[in-house]
């Protein structure tokens, strides 16, 4: 997507090195940094220099490629899988990308691994962009239907950042929004701030500003009220892992939005790229590991100081502890539909398998 008119991806290879936008400093500072070692790739994922399920997968793929250029041995391949897989437990794209790289590289002679890994990592990035573009095209049909029915502005609520900053480009939940804007449809987005790391306030709002999408930032707890008063026509969120029966794991707070949407008859859709489907699990609440992050993310908040520097301030009393589950699971029964790159389907095992028969079969 564009930053001040210049096309950007969230991760790219330039001058022989992998570069990322270090998202910890957005929207106040645009910091582009190289990732040159396995340790830097691991830190970038673990400490959320990059975040978002598809982008985590793409970053891990490049991390494996950079390691193969340094040491293409079997031991390095195995160790790199373990080191990068251990960075964050919930987004399935991380395991998907590492397994894809291992599937490709393990049979190759070490001398061929670096070039093959770099090619595959670049392909995974390009595939992500195309998947998200297609999600946008399918999601556009939903928005267009509402626009034609209302003959007016379509109000969409989204949670966290499932934008191009969570992917290589386009985003997942934001892709239908960008497509609607390009189609001339009048859309307005309610951006959940998304405590504690405020991916909505810091990242989605920045994306909306950059692309001229009408939006309002709202506190997480305002969404139910807006739905009660008929101010939300559609909820679109992303996902970090969706089970074979359509249970959706996403940023903490998504489940509460789904409950409010159900209670108020608001369509609740999930933008779902197929690498984010975990065909090996069915019951999301029981089976998906939920990352517990540092309590400091709850007791402190980051922002721009009067002098323009980015600082963190404590908002709770000394000595107050915090729980910080980073994700929750929305049961399939609360999901109106899944917007995938192959079309929109019900959050239901048969409908999902019909769209992706080869993946469903291989996991059976
Ligand atoms: C398109 S997936 C984006 C997904 O990832 C976010 O989590 P995090 O920022 O912790 O990586 C959030 O759950 C988004 O919906």
Automatic annotation (TrEMBL):
Its EC number is 5.3.1.23. InterPro entries: IF-2B-related, IF-M1Pi, IF_2B-like_C, Initiation_fac_2B_a/b/d, M1Pi_N, NagB/RpiA_transferase-like. Pathway: Amino-acid biosynthesis; L-methionine biosynthesis via salvage pathway; L-methionine from S-methyl-5-thio-alpha-D-ribose 1-phosphate: step 1/6. Keywords: Amino-acid biosynthesis, Isomerase, Methionine biosynthesis. It catalyses: 5-(methylsulfanyl)-alpha-D-ribose 1-phosphate = 5-(methylsulfanyl)-D-ribulose 1-phosphate. The record marks 160 as: Transition state stabilizer. The active site is at residue 240. Substrate binds at residues 51-53, 88, 199, 250-251. One of its GO terms (molecular function) is isomerase activity. It is an enzyme of class 5 (isomerase). Catalyzes the interconversion of methylthioribose-1-phosphate (MTR-1-P) into methylthioribulose-1-phosphate (MTRu-1-P). Belongs to the EIF-2B alpha/beta/delta subunits family. MtnA subfamily. This is Methylthioribose-1-phosphate isomerase. It comes from Cereibacter johrii. The lineage of its organism: Bacteria, Pseudomonadati, Pseudomonadota, Alphaproteobacteria, Rhodobacterales.
